[in-house]
Amino acid sequence: MKILYVTSEAVPFCKTGGLADVAGSLPPSLAKQGAEVAVILPLYQMVKEKFGDQLTFECFDYVDLGWRHIYCGLFSLERDGVTWYFLDNERYYSRGELYGHSDDGERFGFFSRAVVKMLDHLKFWPDVVNCNDWQSALVPVYLKDDGVRDERYRSIKTVLTIHNIEYQGRYNPYVLGDLFGLDAGWVKDGTLLMDGDLNLLKGAILCADAVNTVSPTYASELKMPYFAHRMESIMQQCSEKLSGVLNGIDMRLYDPRTDSRIAENYSAEDMTGKAVNKITLQKRVGLREEPDTPILALVSRLVSHKGLDLICEVLHDMMDLPIQLVILGKGDQKYEDFFRWAAQQYPGRMSVQLDYNEDLSMAIYAGADLYLMPSKSEPCGLSQMIAMRYGTVPIVRETGGLKDTVQPHESWRGVGTGFTFANYSSGDMLYVIREAVYLYKDYPDVFERLRERAMKCDFSWARSAREYLRIYATITGMEWPPSHENSSRATEQPEAVEEAEAPVTAPAEEAAAAISVKEPAVEETASPFEETSAEVSAEEPVEEAPAAEAPVKETPVAEAPVEESPAAETSAEETPVTEAPSETEKEAKAAKKTAKKTTKTATKTTKKTTKKGTSKKGTAGK
Ligand code: GLC
User: What is the pLDDT of residue 566?
Assistant: First the structure.
């Protein structure tokens, strides 16, 4: 199967957000599973500067867009089994920033048009074009436009991946012909029209053969006005072709056992290095060197949908707890001002770094104990997965990918990988922060087991890539994996066959199927994301497993991790339950005590919160 992945950014070439991480990891993972994959993106100035000497000039052509006849160069580079193509036009892309220019519409209109035009010059004619977000949203529209005149375009199937529906590419309909070279019919029939605006994302949602978002929960949330930024009716209309595929993370890049960016390596089996990272972090950001005080961390763009208002409301209540708080990120002025001011109130206990700093973020993931992500909405979120991988237990609001990646801790039966709360309420957030802090302080052994479960989750791209290939197979009608490979692989890797036989529903369940379990059964059955470290490094066999052929539509959306998955049951049989009962007992006891404590203090806090929340409102809002 030949896949062309169209993106406006990709690691390691250029990055402004999570899309770049996905575009940098998913294509190589698809290639590892046997697909032929090329990625195409603009040749920004920063790519030329960093990778210029590795690029091969392929050819150039001209793109006709409206009244313009525009030069387009094509460069390429081979890396990780993928051909990376770069489209060159200095006027559009030789600039410091990727986005935020007044002619972004024209720049990405050109990009999408040029992708279609340059298909003739690529190493293959794709079966599937997977575009991403509004910047490449016109690709499915242009393909339909061209397909009317030229039969060969009709063979290409398209997928749109929505990473964040907030950004839709909205313009005045007046520019349709001039900027995008499209006929007025596209607006007249409503395909590109939304609330009186030209809306590129809407066009792609309607024209693409399949639409997916980056988590199952976000896919279902997009049918609700609260999350959909006015697109709910379109998403409902397209629900038959809509699915959610959870992103992964690069499990090799983010591996505390081997990561050279952190102070000392460690693993779930030997956590001594984590303590070294903690002290190093405390020194680095000016926190008191207290090994037993839990560090609560937040690494985020400081913008409203990250749920920062909740933190502003109850910051002082949070700081009444025996914690240290470290915040890294920059963004809206009001949050920067508030956090800068707050840090001054708690010297040695609260540190705020208003910066975007990859190196410091790694020090935080490795050195902190708890990771806070109270997002109002979160299509997937990557940092909670990175935090978990480094044994920093997440505290998240149950939305989008946060809900799909963090299983709530239940002391009484020893399951879960983090702490969660459902309502967008500062009181509820504070309640679970308190629960987490006291579990850390009073029941270190229970906390350690929770931490270990978080570290062993399977967030590998192999799982997501299989889901994408399933979507591609459904829309093209192609068999995947091809049957001859299927049979040869089956003889080579019996464990892979077992995986394929497991019923495929939610990604979480699939992840459970991919895992052979070596942990106590009681905990395992409840943690479908878990895997052993051995399996992480041996990613290959798992990736090559024949994927079951469930059609896209049948992938249930927003399913909670499934506890009774067949894989988990098998594991339970395989693993003798020796220490489980006593652990459970212990944890139940701990739960009872913590619950008591939290309930006692919750009433107190809610009172305090309301009082302080009101009085602080003015400060936070400024
Ligand atoms: C966007 C979303 C984020 C997601 C990322 C990658 O940045 O806001 O939740 O993880 O895209 O898909």
Answer: 34
